[in-house]
Input
Amino acid sequence: MIISIANRFANGNELNPNEFEGGQDTAAFELLRNEGFEIVQKLDPVKSLIENYKKHIETNKLEDEVYKWELVNEYKGRPDTNAPDFYEEIKSIKFKKPLYMQWELL
Output
């Protein structure tokens, strides 16, 4: 779909995406390169999360992160995502902060 729209901007003709194969090593990508488009690698969302977390830690020096490591140490292996009743599994853990605050950086 992206190639179809990009082609419309490059030469006024939107291509039918069902008429060609996609992928970086295809003629469609070569066409875009020839028209002056820069092809950039799509960001991996997990890598982005990790990089953002690293930056956050560099800034605050773990001041607001200690409770997470305490929870990891206290509840080794929990919550068990394979528990028969995951809702009860989560409820059985005594989080020091509301759960939504623990994942606010994600």
